[in-house]
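Preliminary data (for renewal application), 3,4-dihydroxyphenylalanine complex.
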Amino acid sequence: MDLADLTRDLEALQVEALAAVAAASDAAALDALELDILGKKGRLTTILRGIGGLPADDRPRVGAVANTVRTAIEAALAERGDALRGSELEARLAAEAVDVTTPGRPMRRGTLHPSIEAMREIASIFEQFGFVTYESPEIEDDLTNFQMLNIPPDHPARDLWDTLYVDVEGRLLRTHTSPGQIRVMQTVSPPIRALLPGRCFRYEAIDASHGSEFFQVEGLMIDEGTSMADLKGLLEQFAGAMYGADKRTRFRPGYYPFTEPSVAFDVECLVCGGSGCPACGRSGWMTILGAGMVHPVVLQYGGLDPERYQGFAFGMGPERIKMLKHGITDLRLFLENDLRFLEQFR
Ligand code: DAH
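Predicted structure:
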């Protein structure tokens, strides 16, 4: 090995290295090249081992050439590295770009069951008149469901409530929310403005207007000097809020053992407006609830002095209230939980 050979090898290495650097396709390939050529056991080092066999005068010359070659290769590596890293970043940015204008995935929202929704609607109207919502048991005793409501054991009025009994003597599934009146009177002192929504049960053949399981909302107001006029005014406000203030209403005589006098409260037919159609049995009116002045016997069972306190009560079916409002003709839709029906109330 002489000076000329070493110089030639070094220059050949430079040419080859520069070509390889230019051809490298990614940063990893460049790293491998750098190690192969400039690394501790790289090819440049291998060539320079030949220096030991040269005369002392020639050594610095080879050193100078080697430095030039090293610098040139290092510069080429750096430049190519920058270029590759730049385009790799660009490629990544392009690949990972987020299109912020893409519509989001829709969130599936549930809704309240129309029966529950109806009860909330009813409560929100009566709340404006100071009514407070209470709960009362679904399994009742005969005493509270019937006797304290002025329905003695052998009274023919019992036929109005076909009853489901549980196999505990004297216990039954409440047939209406009216026993809640007794429970409120026994625990809250007047003035009372109570709302009692809840599930009721009857031994009933199921058809378009009857179910064996349904909801009721009971109302009770007790105070000194409460009159039928208060009842009428309140119910008119309720009907106005629920169906529109322009709707006509009327009281009709009715019968319930726990109220005296008792009434049925009607609103003009929401389908025909009062002229008469099949929906209202051609009467022009639809009954939305039963009501009346609380019977003195019931007040007494509730622990109140009928000489001092009077009051009124009313009871309605939230499904019926909703059916009239939306022109729904079959109560069974509320019980079947068919999504095609329920989703219409979104
Ligand atoms: N409890 C009655 C029923 O199930 C509804 C009712 C009527 C409740 C008149 C009342 C009322 O409070 O005064 O049919």
